[in-house]
């Protein structure tokens, strides 16, 4: 699932990207990207989702 502006996208991961096959409109749904998190809001509720730092290529 991917949160899009005003809608939810359902699909699958493929070759390093997410392909959305179905979309569902959700009135009042908003997303805002921050440096280290994603803020998702619906009406008065807000969810803060922390992002994972990607590892540099070749390091573990």
Explain the overall architecture.
The protein has 60 residues and is mostly beta strands. It is 0% helix and 62% strand. The protein has strands at 2-4, 7-14, 17-25, 29-33, 37-42, 45-50. It has a three-stranded antiparallel sheet, with no helix packed on it. The protein has a three-stranded antiparallel sheet with strand order 4-5-6, with no helix packed on it. A hairpin with a 2-residue loop joins strand 5 (37-42) and strand 6 (45-50). The chain is flat, with a radius of gyration of 14 Å. The two termini are 28 Å apart. The model has no long low-confidence stretch (mean pLDDT 84).
Please sum up the structure shown.
By secondary structure, the protein is mainly β.
H/E topology pattern: EEEEEE
Decide which structural class fits the backbone: mainly beta
Beginning-to-end CA distance, first to last residue: 28 Å
Overall pLDDT: 84
Beta-strand content estimate: over 45%
Q: So what's the overall shape?
A: flat
Oligomeric state as shown: single chain
Number of helices: 0
Question: What is the helix fraction of residues, given as a range?
Answer: under 10%
**Widest β-sheet, arrangement of strands:** 1-2-3
Low-confidence stretches: none
The radius of gyration is 14 Å
Major beta sheet summary: 3 strands, antiparallel
Instruction: Please give the number of β-strands.
Output: 6
């Amino acid at each position: 699932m991917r949160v899009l502006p005003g809608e939810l996208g359902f699909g699958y991961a493929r070759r390093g990207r997410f392909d959305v096959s179905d979309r569902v409109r959700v009135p009042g749904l908003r997303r805002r990207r921050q440096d280290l998190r994603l803020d998702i809001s619906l009406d008065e509720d807000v969810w803060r989702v922390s992002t994972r730092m990607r590892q540099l290529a070749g390091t573990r």
